[in-house]
Amino acid sequence: MHSPKFLSERETEAVRAAILRLNVGHPVVNDRDFHVWQAYAVRAWPTLIADTNNHAIRVASLASGDVTTLVLRGL
């Protein structure tokens, strides 16, 4: 997931160029308008989000050391 820190990082073509330049080998979603960022209440870069088999979401902000578990209903 890419959530832009600067305006120049919002454009999908800029993200695509960075992916190619850095040889990123996994899919990257451009969250240019911070919809995913807001849905998971992310507050800092970098943050890791993992969905478990029972749909418990682990959110870990590496910047603050904060780890929170959320349970999503309806999944």
Sketch the major β-sheet.
3 strands, antiparallel
Cα end-to-end separation: 20 Å
Q: How many extended strands? A: 3
Order of helices and strands: HHEEE
Q: Order of strands in the sheet with the most strands?
A: 1-2-3
Secondary structure category = alpha+beta
Would you identify the regions where 5 or more consecutive residues have pLDDT less than 50?
none
Strand content: 15-25%
Helix content: 10-25%
Mean pLDDT over all positions: 79
- How many helices? 2
Oligomer status:
single chain
Radius of gyration: 14 Å
Question: Would you give an account of this structure?
Answer:
The chain is 20% helix and 21% strand. It is built from two helices and three strands; from the N terminus they run ααβββ. A three-stranded antiparallel β-sheet has the order 1-2-3, with no helix packed on it. The radius of gyration is 14 Å and the shape is globular. The two termini are 20 Å apart.
